Amino acid sequence: MHPVYGALLGCVTGALAWLTARAFIAHHRDETVDLAWLRRQLGAARDARGAVTPLGATFVAALAILGAYLGWRATGAAQVVAALIASGLYAAITVIDFRVRRIPNPLVVALLVWGGVQMLWLGRPTLPAAGLGLLVGGGIFLLLALLRRGAMGAGDVKLAAAIGWLVGYPLVLTALFWGIVAGGVAAVVLLVTRRAGRKDTMAYGPYLAMGGWVLQLAMLGLLPWGT
To answer: What's the structural domain count of the chain?
Structure first.
């Protein structure tokens, strides 16, 4: 696929991801405290003068740049589509979990459905690898949630299982490892800067999504330093 077509597809994916995130956050707006921030960043797609909101523009621009890279790197359109759809879902989950501390079930189901489509379309991962990845990913985080109540939510467990289904075993182990490392670094930064205390909870979904996203690109042979 030509990079220009990849960028155009990325724009569409970014816009859909942005609208999805905005809709879920707006649905839970009564549960947020900072409604002024919500109105500024995740309110209407355009303000009264028609200017695109910063976060919406970031979604579209980031996915467009990614799409252009994928169009240049990939050997076929299927790889580009697979990577962009997963990227859009992970981006929406990241923003939603950061803002309202929820990982919507419909987006987890969308990851699972897309994993099935990916298997049929690209043959990656294989069904046994995907099934084992789902069990291992979900099982690890279910165990963590049981051992440390309140440390992990049900959404984190379901997202870990979905990541396992999408990238398969053993890649799920690497995805979760880097997600846990990124989450740990973020927790240390929050403690050092006193933006959170030791007993405070944090959104873990964005870091799991990051790990899943990187390993999704690795599985499809789209990372710049590997095949």
So the answer is: 2
DSSP 5-63: HHHHHHHHHHHHHHHHHHHHHHHTGGG-S-HHHHHHHHS-SB-TT-PBPHHHHHHHHHH
Q: Are residues 118 and 137 in the same domain?
A: yes
| CB 171, CB 219: distance < 8 Å | yes
Kindly state whether residues 145 and 114 are assigned to the same domain.
yes
Same domain, residue pair 61 and 110: no
DSSP 81-147: HHHHHHHHHHHHHHHHHHHHS---HHHHHHHHHHHHHHHHHH--S-HHHHHHHHHHHHHHHHHHHHH
Examine the domain organization and report whether 95 and 130 are in the same domain.
no
The total of other beta-carbon atoms located within 10 Å of residue 106's CB is 9
Least confident of 69-73, 137-141, 188-192, 199-203: 199-203
Which of helix, strand or coil describes residue 152? strand
Does residue 6 sit in the same domain as residue 17? yes
**CA torsion through residues 150, 99, 94, 117, sign:** positive
d(CA 52, CA 186): 29
**pTM exceeds 0.90:** no
pLDDT digits (tens, 9 = 90+) for 86-114: 999 999 999 999 888 889 999 999 999 99
Domain final residue pick, 68, 102, 136 = 102
pLDDT digits (tens, 9 = 90+) for 169-180: 999 999 999 998
